[in-house]
Amino acid sequence: MKFGIVVFPGSNCDRDMQDALQYDLQREVTMLWHKDTALPGFSTDDCIVLPGGFSYGDYLRCGAIARFSPMMQSVIEFAYAGGKVLGVCNGFQILCESGLLPGVLLPNGHQQFACKNVFLVNKNDQSIFKIPIAHGDGRYFANDEVLSTLDQNNQILFHYCNPSGQIDAASNPNGSTNNIAGICNEQRNVFGMMPHPERATNSLLGNMDGLKVFELLGLN
Amino acid sequence: MTDYNVQIKVMLLKDLLDPQGKAVQGSMHSLGLDTVRDVRVGRHITLSIQADSEASARNAAEEACKKLLANPVMEYYEIEMIQ
After folding, report:
1. CB neighbours of residue B19 within 10 Å
2. Which domains are seen in chain B, by residue range?
3. Among chain B residues, CA nearest to A68
4. DSSP three-state, residue A116
5. Is-contact A35 A43, C-beta < 8 A?
6. Contact of A82 with A45, CB cutoff 8 Å
7. How far is CA A75 from CA A67, A70, A138, B5, B42, in A?
8. Å from A60 to nearest chain B CA?
9. Could you give the ipTM of this predicted complex?
């Protein structure tokens, strides 16, 4: 599996992602400029990553302008063809705005930028990860119908939890509905999450849990 | 073709918490404006559209709102055509 990372004006986690994938996961990585449309040599076995940052200055709504960039039209086609797409933080917001994932990311409920380590649990296998977050607009919201569909189809990848894996209000860093930190689409080829696994893939960073996140998503 | 001036209001859905509005309200209370309640902050967008009728200008504005200016999952919008 090779990776492509889309660089938007205002992306600021693209190089972190490149480092993590290239040096820690030992994968081939191509940087993709937002104004281009070509996905050179990519097949649906590969993965396109939308990195964190503040694409287009978060104008209008986070991710709203990036969604209409030339490269995103190719990424949307790639996703519909079955290719894997991962959006982290601003990338998650772009995936929601583009309709590849349901719901939206609203401003944090407590009116503060949240920058710290949090714990995540995957309800399938009860695996727990410590991963950093850094966002001002991470409050996941969707209507009840969407939420129950996500639940029924097992599309909720990560819930914010306490260190022992309990999903409680005190562990919710932004007011997300049902402590939702990450989801996937019904076809399970498009993944979005607010926490940053690429910031936890190397012992020098003091945290390797990000590697387990990439493994859980099948992106390793 | 005529230029139609359009004013668009975009607000968070009424049931959703608006942290920006809450922060602004807090500041108003700090100013001594204790009676202020229910502050909500939205966006006001002005634009002009060249069209052969008001109806077609309104249609274009509707399309802009639906596809880009507002996200119906979290926001509602109101369009006002200005003479």
Report:
1. 21
2. 2-82 (3.30.1280.10)
3. B68
4. strand
5. no
6. no
7. 10, 9, 22, 35, 31
8. 7
9. 0.86
* Distance of alpha carbon A148 from alpha carbon A63, whole angstroms: 25
Measured over the CA atoms of residue A83, residue A88, residue A94 and residue A95, the dihedral's sign is positive
Rounded Cα distance between B22 and B41, Å, is 9
To test the contact with chain B by mutation, choose from A62, A111, A144, A147 the residue with the greatest count of B C-beta atoms within 10 A, namely A111
List CB contacts (< 8 A) between A141 and chain B.
16, 73-74
How many C-beta atoms surround the C-beta of residue B10 within 10 A?
19
pLDDT, tens only, B20-45: 999 999 999 999 999 999 999 999 99
Contact list in A for residue B63 (CB cut-off 8 A) is none
All residues of chain B having their beta carbon less than 8 Å from the beta carbon of residue A143 are 73
Beta-bridge mates of residue A183 = A156, A192
Confirm or reject contact between B72 and chain A (CB < 8 A).
no
| Interchain contact, A64 vs B19, CB within 8 Å | no
Residues of A designated as active site:
89, 196, 198
- Which residue type sits at B14? K
Q: Which amino acid is at A67?
A: R
- For residues A209 and A116, what is the distance between their CA atoms, to the nearest angstrom? 15
User: Are B19 and A143 inside 8 Å of each other by CB?
Assistant: no
A111 and B20: CB-CB below 8 Å? yes
Using the beta-carbon criterion (under 8 Å), do B23 and A111 form an inter-chain contact?
yes
Mark out the alpha helices in B1-83 (DSSP H runs): 19-30, 54-64
Tens digit of pLDDT for each residue in A144-192?
Answer: 999 999 999 999 999 999 999 999 999 999 999 999 999 999 999 999 9
Residue A44 near residue A83, CB atoms below 8 Å: yes
CATH of domain A3-216: 3.40.50.880
Residue of chain B minimizing CA distance to A108? B19
